[in-house]
Design brief:
Blueprint lengths: L1 H56 L5 H9 L4 E8 L1 H7 L11 H9 L3 E6 L4 E10 L19 E10 L1 H51 L14 H34 L7 H22 L5 H14 L6 E6 L7 E6 L11 H5 L3 E2 L16 E9 L2 E8 L3 H39 L9 H18 L3 E8 L2 H8 L1 H18 L5 E6 L2 E7 L3 H16 L3 E2 L5 E2 L3 E8 L6 H17 L5 E3 L7 H7 L1
Parallel strand pairs: 15-16
Antiparallel strand pairs: 1-4, 2-3, 3-4, 5-6, 5-9, 7-8, 8-9, 10-12, 10-15, 11-12, 13-14
Helix pairs in contact: 1-2, 1-5, 7-10, 8-10, 12-13, 13-14
Length: 609
């Protein structure tokens, strides 16, 4: 393992060196070729300038000496000038060596572009570059003064052959030097790594042995290390300490679980199986928590808790009771009892906030004195919300079995607690948004929601609604005379009269200002008239306290209509009741008027029906 790891590390480094060497050699070669290209351009410009000078001084017949001198420059193996057809036509063919020698010269003259070609063998390396001379009118000197040519026409070319064997040789020698240096470095690195890894591999082999034994269940083995490396000794100490703690903890768990299993026969005798059961329970609780997060309200959460108690815990006789600061009496939210049972405020568990078992003391709870076997467990959900679980058993054995399941039940209640708090707050906010703060009656916003649901139900079940629109007579005078605080007292007095004189199935709304709306469920015409008169007379007798200590009385005007007799639209019936209220005001107030189509003018009658 040690040698294999060392070879992998050294091999990786060596490969990196080889790539670097190849790149360096290639760069040296490319740099040499680039230098040759730049040198060729310099020589071409020098030859062009020299030939132009010879032409201007009339010494063109001596140009061969000039060209020979340039061709003797270092690295230049051959140099010759080629004339284009236009120059030959004007000045003649020139010397014998000034003719096109190969295809490269020919392409350069035809295209006006630089052409190059490299030739390499095992002994030599040559670079051939052919550069064109282009006629330029605006250059100095002006080519057109001597040549009969056009702007951009090729006048000739200069071809140069460079010997780049030395450049190639330098690249190879540099690469070999890098290669040799790499081998030396790799050897040194291999020896250093191999020597440095010996203590690590000794530690690794010991760890492998100890971990294999731990995998088999034997935690008594310990890591051994004979080297002097401080870090390795630290690792050995940490792992051995961990193994020792693990061994001691497992032994302690084994002893503790055995004691626990003696008290709880439902647990698995095998520690791993017991852990598996706990994991399954946590998974079920997590799934339950994820499910109730998407439930609409707390009532749905209560139903889920109740179904889990029935199906998963096999409870057959129990109730879930909600109570809190805002409740006048406890409310059963899930009923799985075998007979009708009532939970009173005097319930010992609700009063003391402590769990109550029937076997704690004889007749421990007076409200459950008729039950022989029962448990009442209160769960505090929040400061203003509590949940009571009352369970009845048929025997002491069943009672004990239920007790053994209470910790698991507690886990589900704990998981549901945040959702119950959230949904309870949402419900409180919803009630607050749909209830008039002054009167406690439903507001106009809730009326919009109520009408939509009530209309579909009424049409489906042929339900009749009586509709009352109620207004306090001369209410503005109350505010103007006594102030708005007394006006609010009058409005609260009317809302109290409404609550006391309508049925539980009826619904009252504060429609706006001093106007109130009452929807009377399944109410015929005679009943509508009776309830309206009952409300009117009750309010007429209700004293309203003035700031000076005296009391005064106010009256009501009421308009009534019937749905669906007057219209198949509840909103139109509300409008008709409002029209009837207006007629009651016109006829002297303090009376009840039933809507009649004759109250509508011709245009209103046409729009209404």
């Amino acid at each position: 393992m040690q040698k294999k790891l060392s070879i992998v590390i050294v091999g990786t480094i060596f490969a990196s060196f080889m790539l670097s060497m190849f790149y360096s050699a290639l760069s040296i070669r490319n740099l040499g070729i680039k230098n040759a290209e730049e040198k060729a351009q310099i020589i071409a410009d020098l030859v062009q300038d020299g030939l132009s000078a010879h032409m201007l001084t009339g010494t063109m017949d001596q140009r061969e000496f000039f060209l020979n001198k340039i061709s003797q420059a270092k690295g230049v193996e051959a140099l010759w000038v080629v004339r284009s057809d236009s120059v030959i036509k004007q000045f003649g063919k020139g010397f014998n060596n000034e003719t096109v020698r190969d295809d490269i010269d020919d392409k350069t003259l035809k295209t006006g572009l630089v052409h190059q070609q490299s030739e390499e063998s095992s002994h030599t390396a040559k670079l051939r570059i052919s550069t064109p001379y282009i006629a330029k009118e605006r250059s100095n000197p002006n080519c057109m003064e001597c040549h009969h040519a056009k702007e951009g026409e090729v006048l000739g070319a200069i071809s140069i052959v460079f010997d780049i064997s030395e450049i190639r040789t330098n690249g190879i020698l540099t690469s070999l030097s890098v290669f040799v240096l790499s081998l030396v470095i790799m050897t040194a690195v291999f020896l250093v790594i191999n020597n440095s890894m010996k203590p690590l591999m000794e530690l690794f082999d010991s760890i492998t042995y100890v971990m294999n034994k731990a995998q088999e269940g034997d935690y008594s083995k310990r890591i051994r290390f004979s080297g002097s490396d401080k870090e390795c000794h630290n690792v050995m100490f940490w792992i051995n300490s961990l193994l020792e703690k693990l061994e001691n903890t497992l032994n302690d768990i084994e002893v503790t679980v055995k004691k626990f299993l003696a008290l709880s026969p439902n647990h698995q005798p095998d520690l791993l199986l017991d852990a598996q059961a706990i994991v399954h329970e946590l998974s079920d609780i997590y799934q339950f928590k994820r499910t109730i997060e998407f439930d609409e309200d707390k009532e749905q959460v209560y139903r889920r808790i109740g179904m889990i108690l029935k199906n998963d815990f096999s409870l057959n006789d129990f109730v879930l009771v909600e109570s809190g600061k805002e409740f006048f009496r406890p409310q059963v939210v899930f009923d799985a009892s075998t007979k009708e049972r009532n939970v009173e405020m005097s319930c010992r568990a609700l009063r003391t906030k402590q769990s109550v078992y029937s076997d704690q003391f004889h007749n421990i709870c007076e409200t459950c004195d008729a039950c022989q076997h029962f448990l009442c467990i209160p769960y505090l959900i929040s400061n203003d919300l509590e949940l009571l679980l009352s369970i009845w058993a048929r025997s002491d054995e069943e009672l004990n079995q239920i007790k053994a399941q209470l910790p698991k039940i507690q886990n589900y209640i704990d998981a549901a607690r945040p959702e119950l708090v959230s949904k309870n707050l949402t419900q409180i906010l919803k009630v607050s948004s749909t209830t008039d703060a002054l009167t406690g009656l439903y507001n106009r916003k809730y009326l919009d929601e109520y009408i939509e649901k009530a209309l579909s139900q009424a049409k489906r079940n042929n339900i009749v609604y009586g509709i009352l629109m109620i207004d306090i007579d001369f209410f503005k005078m109350v505010n103007d005379t006594y102030g708005h605080d007394v006006g609010d007292q009058a409005i609260r007095a009317l809302s109290k009269c409404l609550k006391e004189n309508i049925r539980e199935a009826d619904t009252a709304f504060r429609f706006g200002g001093e106007e109130f709306l009452v929807l009377l469920y399944e109410c015929d015409e005679a009943m509508v008239q009776n309830i309206a008169e009952k409300i009117r007379l009750a309010f007429e007798k209700t004293p309203i306290q003035a700031p000076n200590g005296t009391a005064f009385y106010k009256t009501l005007s009421v308009g009534a209509s019937i749905f669906p007799k007057n219209s198949d639209s509840l909103w139109k019936c509300i409008k008709f009741a409002d029209i009837a209220l207006y007629k009651a005001k016109e006829s002297g107030r303090n009376c009840v008027k039933r809507f009649d189509p004759s109250m509508l003018d011709e245009q209103e009658l046409k729009n209404a029906f």
